[in-house]
Amino acid sequence: MRRIEIYDTTLRDGAQSEDVSFSVEDKLLITKKLDDLGVHFIEGGWPGANPKDVLFFQEMRKVSLKSARLVAFGSTRKSRNKVSDDPNIQALLHAGTEIVTLFGKTWDLHVFDALGITLKKNLDIISDSVSYLKEKGIRVFYDAEHFFDGYLARPEYAVKTLETAQAAGAECLVLCDTNGGMMPWQVREILTVIRKTFRGPLGIHTHNDSEMAVANALTAVECGIEQVQGTVNGFGERCGNANLCSILPNLKLKMNINCISDEQLKHLFDVSRFVSEIANLPHNKHQAYVGEAAFAHKGGIHVHAVRKKAETYEHIVPGKVGNRQRVLISDYGGRSNLLEKAREYKINLTADHPRLDEILANLKDLEHRGFQFEGAEGSFELVMKKALGRHKRFFKLVGFRVIVEKRQESEDSLAEATIMVEVNGQVEHTAAIGSGPVNALDNALRKALEKFYPVLSDVKLLDYKVRVLSAGAGTESKVRVLIESGDGETTWGTVGVSENIIEASWQALVDSIEYKLLGRQS
User: Fold this and answer.
1) Contact 96, 69 (CB under 8 A)
2) 344: helix, coil or strand?
């Protein structure tokens, strides 16, 4: 089986994505996950660019990687500097890595307009930089920046830059679509020529500005390249880089190319979510292979089919990438959806159950009123259990009051909630403050109930979303509140709908608590 080496640049190129900023601790955690995933090279950063990357490489000297090789990234020397005196080159040496990736200019536009030097001077810079590092015992990968644009503009010069880097000792020539504008057929045409000229290892580094980064990377693999560069979740400058969460399963499962093991591929879903969490970004649920919706089925016909044979609407077995099949509950679904969800909830509901049609009708009515259960399966499980007589009320609301007060224009508002609940005939009256009215209500409810149900101390509100359903009504509009809760082991979603945002939030909060308590009694 043909082997392709995977080069991850999440910690450098991915960190250049808008809204992403990794601390040194973040980068150390991600490095361990990438090593476990089985990537061959981990580009740790640019040690000459900022103190954080310098510190990261210092910390990595204390870390033993199982299989991956750590790589430092940087530019060729400045045109005005001798290579031995260039700060960037010296920073790369001090990073202490066995491998360095150097990028240099390929496109004559950049040589003239960005560097302001001659084409010959640029070749000297490439040669000096690569050969100097090689003399110091460093393995060098050479990133030919803007290679494809440079080749289209002046092919003989673009090829000359590669020849210069290779002659100076670069062991892998990485062809970069830095602007992300190439089409797969352009990549194929150019690489067909380059592959005939260069017999040594070639790599591919693509950006996603034309939504072609993954397609271009896979096309390059078809053309015989040996190294693929990309980032987890496609994080990167502008529109991002080639997404390794798509490339890895495509190589393994579609192209039958060895890159990581089958067991390592099963960690892909977890790695994808982990990197999103560390980046403090919502995980893209519609992402191929590793999105939560990648194997989610909503239409009744689809669900009916996948219950019989999963491959009717699934192109791979979800577990191969660590994902799972999901059946969504909505008014687009039918009896098959309900039966599948009942099986998932371990509820004894059969196709001939007398309450099945009643539950389905109730679902459609609730969604007509604005409820949505695709992201609130906790609430829907409660709907099913109520219909089947398997629900229990754990407390009764006597009343609550929420006050929002702003004492001075320059100060933040204050929120306080007072609540009275009854549990087994005993009334509990308490109050709590919060960063907003819903947070205060959540705190007060939890404070009142934890006396009776200590397990609720583990429950945390993880996410809170509000959607205006009837925007034309202005501030009288009906809103839908979706809440995600968790207890450190699992997460669940609940929903509430009302013209009053506090009432909608209350509904979702109550469902969240009842779901947790009911689950402990199952």
Assistant:
1) no
2) helix
